[in-house]
Amino acid sequence: MKILKHKKRKKQKRQQKQPISSSKIALITGANSGIGFAIAQRLLYHSSQNPLDKYRILLGCRNEVKASKARTDLLKEYPNSLIDIVIVDVSSVNSIFKFCRKLKKKYDHIDLLFCNAGILSCVYVDWWIFPHQLLSNPKELFTDTKSIIQPVGNLTEEGLGETFACNIFGHYVMIHQLEDMLAAAGHARIIWTSSCTARRDDYNPIDYQCIEGSSPYESSKYITDIISVALNSRLNQRNIFSFTTHPGVVATNIVSDHLGFVMGKLMKIGFYTARILGLKEETITAWNGSYSNYIVATQPIENLNKYHKYGSYVKPWGSVYYLDELIDRYNENEALSLLKKLDDLILEFKKKH
Fold it and tell me: Where is the composition biased (Basic residues) (predicted)?
């Protein structure tokens, strides 16, 4: 009899779940710097101004040291805030499976999932393109420079296209694994960080893993746009809504990493000059760039259009605002076909792991 009672108590303990938090829970990938860090800042500022609408922030990062520093910096700015660190590598499906299992044990719902982490790889900088673009299309030079030559054919250890894994598939797997937690929140939102340079012309449906094309970054960002829209056909019935945003042109560490410190500073000066001359895409700072993410996270659902991409823009002297526009040449059948390919890919990985 005692043994049976002991077993019963153990079973009840295993089944015990964390009680639902009074705060909304926002999971942000790539949160230790750039747009992800600024999204966290905006939500914490929102919490400080709206005591009845507070957020618990989950900093989704690959590097624990950088994540800890980000958390410390946020707590200095917003003391007593609810900030947790969750470690995940979005380029690794195995890492995401493990991450999601841990997350389900600790939290009972997720209100906001920011699919923000990503990479823009560079082989070298073609300096000859600068003067050519300056003369032929100066606006394009400061919004969609072609001087950063991207690698073609890079694969992860799991055999996926590197840019595809980091920018698209890792988040898609995460959504798939966390769907019940999103549904538990009621009116949860998935918010993808795309790019103002994402266009249909950069996308090849056959090369959906972005392995062969010359612009894997732009291609991957267009795919996030169409995936974001298509997911609604499956998730809206569970009160989960998917949207896509872009931060404009932000001088994050992507620029300095590829061009070097000095050229990064010079590029920044160029961005500010372009803004003063009227290029509204030159948001420059991550705080400005994150504005569209914040708008989509906090506006009433009925005010948002799933077929539109929400972008951050600035006036010449820095005032930030947002605009929304239709996803470039969205094709529903093509998008749903892509979702089927990604679902099949998930099944392959589930068999392995």
Answer: 1-16
Residues in the chain: 353
Predicted confidence at residue 253, as pLDDT, reads 63
DSSP state letter for 250: B
Comparing CA positions, the residue from 297, 74, 342 lying closest to residue 205 is: 342
Give the pairing type, strands 82-87 and 55-61.
parallel
Q: Note whether 122 and 148 are within 8 A (CB).
A: yes
Token pair for residue 153? 């054919």
Domains contained in the chain, CATH given = 20-352 (3.40.50.720)
Cβ proximity of 307 and 330 under 8 Å = yes
CB atoms within 10 A of CB 291: 24
* Phi, psi angles (nearest 5°) of residue 162: -60, -50
**Which ranges constitute the DSSP H helices of 2-63?**
2-15, 34-49
> For residue range 247-279, what is the model confidence (pLDDT) as tens digits?
999 986 655 666 667 767 777 888 888 899 888
State the pLDDT at residue 273: 86
- What is the DSSP code (8-state) at residue 165? I
DSSP 3-state assignment of 200? Answer: helix
Dist. CA 191–CA 211, nearest whole Å? 25
SS3 call for 84: strand
- To the question of pTM greater than 0.85 for the whole model, the response is yes
CB of 29 closer than 8 Å to CB of 114: yes
Specify the pLDDT at position 19.
43
Residue with tokens 């906090």, as numbered in its chain = 298
Q: Which of 314, 242, 293, 311 is nearest to 46 (CA)?
A: 293
**Pick from 93, 23, 94, 27: nearest CA to 61:** 27
Residues of the chain with pLDDT under 50: 1-20
Q: Are 220 and 146 in contact (CB under 8 A)?
A: no
Residue 84: partners with Cβ closer than 8 Å, 6 or more residues away? 56, 57, 58, 59
3-state secondary structure of 316: coil
